[in-house]
Amino acid sequence: MSTLSLTLTATRYNLIETARVPIAVIGSVVFPTLAFCLFVLPQGAVVTDSSVATAAVCSMVVFAFMSSGLFSVGLELAEQRSKPWTPYLRTLPGSPLARIGALILATLAIATAAMVPLLVVGGVFTSARPEPLRLLAAIVLVIATALPPMLIGAIIGLTTGPKAAIAVTQVALFLLAFGGGLFLPPQFFPAWLDTASSVLPIRQAREIVVGVATGAEVPLWAILGVVAWTLALGALVVWLYRRDEGRRYR
After folding, report:
1. Rounded distance, CA 132 to CA 213, Å?
2. What is the C-alpha to C-alpha distance for residues 23 and 7, in angstroms, rounded to an integer?
3. For a FRET experiment, which of 21, 87, 156, 231 has its CA 20 to 30 Å from that of 97?
4. Which residues form the ABC-2 type transporter transmembrane domain (predicted)?
């Protein structure tokens, strides 16, 4: 079986396993929309301005993918490493990319589902009205730029135990969300924070998605940053996986 077919098979079983716990799916789907209703909808100045509302919806969509990546990938990997079944699976033939890739693909599928109610609420209760083609392009790009937080989640899962992973993920979630301009637009940041924020992959993803959705210019540094983060974090995940395997199974 090729790595691709093995990845797709593992993705299917990951989704089936997740669906057996309905509250896990419901929580992942509802949480971003609930956060949008609590933190964005009460702000009249935001929901009545088309451009600002579109940027706010895009920011919360990026937040949906980031939270899914950190929690689903990070906590799942940490839990798997604590069970005897996973060490056995890792003694079998098969690329490690298939196992981690399947977990990332399954998480992307759930995050994509979580994006639907968020877009519906944003379209009904705010004045966000992006052009259809721009909206479609933004949806594709938010999925493409979600790889860095998924890989950060994998790093947390490969370096911490189940209990520690929860605490580390919660801290990382709020630091990345605030620093990435998802809760407060970067225009309100002081100069030093704006400069530091531009280095974060979440800020870079936000700039790309918001720029495409609103028709603004997408900064080149954001594109290069997402690519660089994806390559660097991906290489680190592979190294950590191999280091973990060497320490635990040889």
Report:
1. 9
2. 25
3. 21
4. 8-211
- Sign for the pseudo-dihedral over CA of 195, 198, 200, 203: positive
Q: What is the pLDDT of residue 230?
A: 95
1 closest CA partner among 102, 77, 85: 102
C-alpha pair distances (Å), 3 with each of 77, 90, 100, 101: 19, 14, 11, 10
Phi-psi bin for 95: left (phi > 0), alpha (psi -120 to 50), beta?
A: beta
- Please state, in angstroms and rounded to a whole number, the distance separating the CA atoms of residues 48 and 125: 9
Closest by CA position to 40, among listed 61, 24, 71, 19? 61
3-state helix, strand, coil in the chain (%, to 5): 80, 0, 20
d(CA 24, CA 238): 27
Reading the block at residue 154, the tokens are: 């994998």
Sequence-distant (6+) residues with CB within 8 A of 223 are 204, 208
Question: Which tokens belong to 153?
Answer: 């989640």
Distance CA 66, CA 35 (A): 13
- Measured in whole angstroms, the distance separating CA 233 from the mean position of its chain's CA atoms is 14
What's the pLDDT tens digit per position in 120-133?
999 889 888 888 89
Report CA 105 to chain centroid distance, whole Å: 11
